[in-house]
Amino acid sequence: MKANRPAAVLLMTAALSAVQTGAFAVAAAADEPPTVVELFTSQGCYSCPPAEAFLRDLAQEKSVLALEFHVDYWDDLVYGAAGKWKDVFSKREFTERQSGYNRRIRGRGNVYTPQMVIDGRIEAVGSQRLKVLSAIRGAEAARRRPGEGHVAVAVSLADSRAEPGSGATVSLGGGTGAAFAAPVDVWMVRLLRERETVVRAGENKGKTLVSRNIVTEIRHIGVWRGHDASFRVPGFSLGDREGCAVLVQDARQGPVLGAGACPAPAG
Fold first, then answer.
1. Model pTM above 0.85
2. Angle between helical axes of 7-21 and 129-143 (0-180°, round to 10)
3. In the chain, where are the structural domains located?
4. Backbone angles phi, psi at 147, to 5 degrees
């Protein structure tokens, strides 16, 4: 007669199988905001494509807002005869955002790729799927702690044909808890939904990289003080294959207190 395997081992085996096949789901309560997963990556980083593939999987989950930030510190690194590659999406401000997270979460300013930051609270190596999924569950649990609270985020985009230049409106529902005792920042994020890039130099020379939800701009649109409020973003519109999202975040680049994806543009 075979001994029964411990339940914890069975659960871990099932979880590992699901992660390896991509058949996993990230659950959250219906009234909760999505969990924000920010991947810091580079087209010049050999170990980054698996993390980008994982982010594409996460982007399919309704309970996750997946964002891909391309940093610039790989752009000048020479990889032997393959030379160096300038990431077409990299920006210095995204490197600075990653540095800010590392100072706050890890107590140090040094950075690495691929790194995922979950809800501005927890960080993990972006290609380590089980650790990232565990971090997502940890962030969801942190939001449910007494005094934490969260804010409802709604975004509307004007019909660019009927109302040219009218832009976007961001509506925030009143939050509760100590997290809203001080003003918090509201950010509008512009992104490319998907893009393929043929890399012709550097560590990934010869590869075709597929990226999803690539951040191209993050704009500060206001300060929120914990009550129902609306923020206008005049002139904001989306181009072909673009999307956007809103982040409500502790002003010290701390926890994300609320988030929402933009609807498809009306025009």
1. yes
2. 110
3. 33-261
4. 90, -10
